[in-house]
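Much of our argument rests on the idea that a fold can be written as discrete symbols. In the encoding step, the backbone of a single protein was reduced to a row of integers, each denoting a local shape. We regard such an encoding as a compact summary of how the chain folds. The record that follows shows the chain in one-letter code together with its fold in token form:
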Amino acid sequence: MISIEREKLLSEFEQKIGYSFRSRALLDRALTHRSFAHERIEQNCQHNEALEFLGDSVLGMVVSAWLLKRFPTLSEGKLSKMKAFLVSEPSLVELAEIIDLGTYILLNRGEEKTGGRRKGTLLADAYEALIGALFLDGGIQVAERFLLYELRDKVFSIDPNSMIGSDYKSVLQEQLQALGAPAPKYVVVETIGPDHRRTFRIELRVGGQTLACGEGRSIKIAQQEAAQAALATSHAFDKVKALLHPPPPTNGKAHPADSELMQGFTEEELDSAFAFVALADELALLPCHDEDAATFAQREDDGDAATAKAGDPDAPIVMVKDDLMG
């Protein structure tokens, strides 16, 4: 017998996945961990391991058919690699986290105290059990529709030629390191949609420069989209090279990096300076309250007045080596 409180939670979860079960008990079983069921054997409480077994097979079949339809000329080896990535535990954990699956799983107190709702294996198993329950309740069409929606970002992000898969971030990181560039930063610039159907938009920045953008149903997917976009064009790397090796000015003046001010600094110190500039650029984009803005403006006025009293208000500020290194 499902309690009223549990019924409310299950109804809430159905709204998240976009499907109403004809058998609410089936959904409840899919979200019941064996630790919870083993403490209620006398109540004939059933856990989700059998549904997990079924869901694993349904998942493999749907993904295999989808990949074959999308890439009909690929070899079995490449198809197998892509399938392995899509049905892997990390992939399923990420999908489970998007729908906040851990919140709705029934656990015993021991699993609860040890962070069971965030355990990767537990989440992946429950996700497969959910697929099995969808198949039993609504048939293969319901299970397939659910998976096509859940997996679409991952499927369309796979590069079958290089088999980078979800590792665009690592590939980009390696290429930037080879150039001697600062580490990339992924900044969430916008969140769209309700809590259960959010879309995140990400800007990929290097040294304060925006190289590419990406979006997805999770921050991780959006980051991969941005990294993939950066790798797909030479324009992004042209920006990085321009940042690291600025062209000489046309007015005949020496570039600040070649001036006496920057002489004597090591490469590590110059990298720190680049990182500091990048951080300053990001902070400059952060919104501030009206009161904070007014206070800042007043401090600027006070500083200008103090400088005018001390001497030339246009005197340049010189950064010495000790100041740079803090």
Observations:
- Confidence is low (pLDDT under 50) at residues 254-265, 288-297, 303-326.
- The two ends are 65 Å apart (CA to CA).
